């Protein structure tokens, strides 16, 4: 099979015959296909046989002894009752804005929203390359005429104000975020600027309009955060909670890791398998909550339906998946013995990482929603004035490139947060802000 081969890809009710598509599998399928001859990609549910392949956005080549078709839900060893094709109320014939639209979750969500037939779909991303690829991915979709591709930074207030004045979106899905824990441990200013101040800027620009809906994507790493990534997302949650009165009706949904997304563990395992290298696992006991891209989109759209504004929703994802078990399943499905000396090696937890994440903090409670998979977090919320004071201080510190001041401010806002030794070294200060958390974790 080569790049000129075609595959029928189904967009809603319309089947298209198109060249190999980027990441359409992640948008519509829960199966991954690993094939000989360095074939790239995933199997698509719309395809009649596994030999019809669609290239994944990660572009990873996989060479195995035999073709192997893996079901992602089976790989996770759990089933999540999420409708992968929900029809949320309030999208059709409305103007919808998606930030981070060209990322792994954003592109999956964008396709699903097109099928919901909005009046306008505004797709904002700061990556020219990824936005261009998203435009190519969606160009044959029957609803593409309603899509507008916007290249720019979320923190470009002038751009946001221009977009809101010109298009007046009724619904905003805020997906844009930095998400790589070890990288951000060395770049706290970037973490706070993008994840925290970006959310605050969006809330501020949307203004006191209670009719607008805002759904933001949070993470399990925001619960009792150990990393600056988690801390930046937790403060973003608090900003959203503080906007419950008068501001746009904002709802956050906490998700786990998206299986197969760029930068996640599965593409790294595929790459290592392709070159017959050992699979690298940080720790024998490390475990993570995972969702497939289709599940993530379904949960985001259910959060849009169920969110009341100024609230956080969390999905019941069952028990976290052991990364060691995940690696073993992949090797066995590829016909390799995971117990061989070169099968799996342990590299140690990286800065900011936990052995296990949590979806709910011990100080939080939960309440049921109309969907048995989603629960509403019950906990204290800061006042609007308090949150605005935090953001004003963080904006000043980030603008002045004061990394130490930013970390000190985060420690005041989140008293339980302790920066890692790696982060303290990155900002060139001794361990005076806490004991540091790079040592191997045994309890959490």
Structure at a glance:
The protein is of the alpha/beta class.
Could you walk me through the main structural features you see in this protein, from its secondary elements to its overall organization?
There is one protein chain. By secondary structure, this protein is α/β, with parallel strands linked by helices. It has two domains: 6-72, no CATH class; 95-320 and 356-378, NAD(P)-binding Rossmann-like Domain (Rossmann fold), CATH 3.40.50. Helices cover 34% and strands 19% of the residues. It contains 14 helices and 21 strands. A hairpin with a 5-residue loop joins strand 20 and strand 21 (374-378). Helix 7 runs parallel beside helix 8. The relative contact order is 0.12.
Q: Which key terms come to mind for this protein?
A:
single chain; 444 residues; alpha/beta; Rossmann fold; 2 domains; 9-stranded mixed β-sheet; two-stranded antiparallel ribbon; 19% strand; disordered N terminus; disordered C terminus
The CATH superfamily of the largest domain is identified as: NAD(P)-binding Rossmann-like Domain
Q: What's the gyration radius in Å?
A: 21 Å
Structural class: alpha/beta
CATH class label of the largest domain: Alpha Beta
Helix amount: 25-40%
Q: What's the arrangement of strands in the largest beta sheet?
A: 9-8-7-10-11-12-17-21-20
CATH topology of the largest domain, by name, is Rossmann fold
Largest sheet: 9 strands, mixed
Annotation field: number of helices: 14
- Low-pLDDT residue intervals, each spanning 5 or more residues: 1-69, 439-444
Gap between N and C termini, in Å? 47 Å
What's the mean pLDDT score? 80
Tell me, briefly, the overall form. Answer: globular
Q: What fraction of the residues are assigned to beta strands by DSSP? A: 15-25%
Which architecture name of the largest domain does CATH use? 3-Layer(aba) Sandwich
Number of domains: 2
